[in-house]
Amino acid sequence: xxxxxxxxxxxxxxxxxxxxxxxxxxxxxxxxxxxxxxxxxxxxxxxxxxxxxxxxxxxxxxxxxxxxxxxxxxxxxxxxxxxxxxxxxxxxxxxxxxxxxxxxxxxxxxxxxxxxxxxxxxxxxxxxxxxxxxxxxxxxxxxxxxxxxxxxxxxxxxxxxxxxxxxxxxxxxxxxxxxxxxxxxxxxxxxxxxxxxxxxxxxxxxxxxxxxxxxxxxxxxxxxxxxxxxxxxxxxxxxxxxxxxxxxxxxxxx
Length: 254
Prior knowledge:
Elements: H1 2-25, H2 27-49, H3 55-76, H4 88-99, H5 107-131, H6 141-165, E1 169-171, E2 175-179, H7 180-200, H8 206-234, H9 249-253
Antiparallel strand pairs: 1-2
Helix pairs in contact: 1-2, 2-3, 2-5, 3-4, 3-5, 4-5, 6-7, 6-8, 7-8
């Protein structure tokens, strides 16, 4: 148990240090980070939902998701014109056409999972990348790093409060360990951290930082519940094992 605690702690420190560093350096390193996260999350997702499928059926969604992310990232940085948004159509069209040649008798269920992975993982990461360029065409790490910090704050507050005071289950059918007390703890800590971030970065007002923190709290909880539902349906504990003691990348970005 003690060994697992230190393993989880060391993994968390290295993971957090890497994410923060790449986010702070510049827009290119952050986009590269999100591309890697996109690839790993898609890989874990398709390994979960398409475990018995051939490599082409798994990697088709990954390839499409990475192409879409790169295309959108280049549009966000103004390296491609807005007209390139329309190129998302031939990417999805190619996914449909390839299904004509698979002959697995499960083409549409496979396609549904492939598209779901892109909607569930790639598009939210595109929107997170856009936060870095929200106020101008030049990259600012304030909103992206602030988002990530508030996201981690939600997890930390919920874990600490739930572990010490948790009694009333939040959504027991989906996630037996989540409690209302944990959510309240996350709420308090998120407000405090959001207020602190407003003193560090003036990209948003204090009110907007706090409101952003509350929105992140709500949707991070829903995202966590959705992934818990996914893993419960598939009878797995973690999305992967790439992070020692912490599971998969999808577990950290759900």
